[in-house]
User: Fold these one by one.
Assistant:
Number 1:
Amino acid sequence: MTQDEGLAKTYLGDAYAAHAAHARKTGLLQDCPALSIDQATLLVWRTADTSRDFRIRSHAGQLTKSELRISRMLDVAVDLLPRSIAQPIDRVVSVPVDEMPGLQREYRMGRMVVWETLRSCSSSAAFRGRGNVAFIVTHRSGRVIGPYSWHPEEDEVLLPAGCRFRVGPTVEADLQRFEISLEEIL
């Protein structure tokens, strides 16, 4: 028995059963037999709206010790998913207008950036209107989670923690909307 066995069940509590059932129902365990039930359950949970607070704390580097273990379990599980061949994929976010200048400085053309945490993207352009910043990503390490997701219509692709990108052109749709091109480098 590994140190992390049962951690997902403890962390998710009552929600564990629903996420595990969804992983079984969608065929995730059948299609990816290397995944444990805990890994599959965490992957499904990660695609659900209920993981929003965890994602926010993760991106801010504010996870508790048990959440860091959950994050590491997710990183391992993502590597067991099939590779995505969809190109490009999008990550759409809402950035407060007063934070836009800092984002523009961070994502200057030619600059290298690292996404330190697991990121969710979509291979469907239908979701670009949901936020004011769209990262248009040409990737090499994206993993397919869409068919198993709580929101299969999003055609979700997960980018593992630590992805490095070269920033390409930025298109300014208006003063408050941007599209930023990123190319993953290995």
Number 2:
Amino acid sequence: MLPVVRRCRPRPFPTSCLALCQSRSVLLNLDAIQYLGVLRLDLTQCHVDFLSVGGHKWLLAPIGTGIFYCRKASMEFLHPANVGYHSADKSEDHLDYDLTFRPNAGRFEEALVNFPGIWGLEAAVNLQLELGPKNVERHILDLNAVAKRGLEAKGYEIVSPPGSARSLGQPVVPASAALLRGARRAAAGPGHQPLDPGGTPSNLAVGLQQ
């Protein structure tokens, strides 16, 4: 499994790693929980076997929901961890114990699912689509730029990787106690935290004035 964005060490989208895995027939599971909902992602343009995303982060979906993507050609490498009557390729025949799995993602559905959570996830995804992934990405990167300028103006040294068009580049600032002591160096490590650029510009400005 490869995380696209680590909490304190953002990285560009790992296109070279994807190409390496594909060239060596290595299955790749991409952890995109800190990516999807912030930056645009088109899986038709890159070879990813599996991708998992928790909905409660940038997608702003209910806790306990998420998205799992499986490339159709890679589906046969996965065996359902839990099996129920929805997993089997048959029509509501509960007395037929044949476990031939459904030929699609339905094989991973055991039985009834968390409908309220799924409705919330659907609403969150629809909101992202309504706003437009490109607009969301531009807004988040603009907030990053505001944070970076504000921190540098107060004398902080940003040591997290610089942002680019395809990297999150969250500025990393000292934790609250360090701020109160007047620390002047931001570092990605114990005792420090990244500044979350997901808030509104007004909230960000208030934080930088403290």
Number 3:
Amino acid sequence: MTFLLHYKSLFIDEQVSGIFTARQVARCLVACTFQLFAPTSWLNALAASMMSGVAVVTMMTPFDVVSTRLYNQGTDAAGRGLLYRGVADCFVRTFAAEGLWGFYKGCGASFFRLGPHTVISLVIWDELQIMCRRFGWTPKAKL
């Protein structure tokens, strides 16, 4: 089933509210990814790891921006920050001054840093698991 057919089934089954939930769209994308490639293809791991790289960057960039701002601020003689009093203060001031998009400055650079790492790690991990199953090796759990 293609992405559009999955999306159509959401519209018929769950009405308009089902279409706009991120969980439903993600379900369609993942289901269609596995139907694009053979079940044992390394391209499944590639597509899934690329999606997880985007998710990681989306969730971590605000914290990355805040920590960078805290590290780069100057300090007074007592060692207190000159611009922000702490993490929460930095979040509030950034949101007040720049809005939500202020937390996503440098998002592209974060993806180019984390994307290849995520893709390479997950594709290699998936291929190692396939090789272990092929040769009949299963790790024994140690307590």
Number 4:
Amino acid sequence: MRWLRLHNDQGGSSVFVALVVPTVLLLAGLVIDGNLAIAHRQRAADIAEQAARSAANTLDIEALRGSAGHTAQVVIAEADMACARARRLVAEYADAWLGSCEIADSARRSARVRVLVRYQAVLLGLVTDPDFTASGTAVATVVTSSRGGQP
């Protein structure tokens, strides 16, 4: 009888549940919120690609016409004008904003855009601050070739 009292298993499953349930919830949070982070990072990259193409499509008309005896050049307009166009495109998305925009090279043939997207974590937001930010960067270059995009 005394042996039964020493090896009592009452409450053993409670300890197991108390250790396993938080671990499983943490792993589920990492999987769900990790996938959410990847999806929003891809979305930020997609918006950045669109904004970079929009900025790169803002061509300098005077340089294109070849004024004052200069040869015609296909270059991006001034950074302010190109970035304003990119900013307008990004503003169409409620949860995104333009992080940075610049003409990426001295020849004014590439535009680099960084876009930030805000999202909320599902399970990890219960433990930490639920607001997270994903970013995406893209570069668009003006191509003047008529050979299917090959310079």
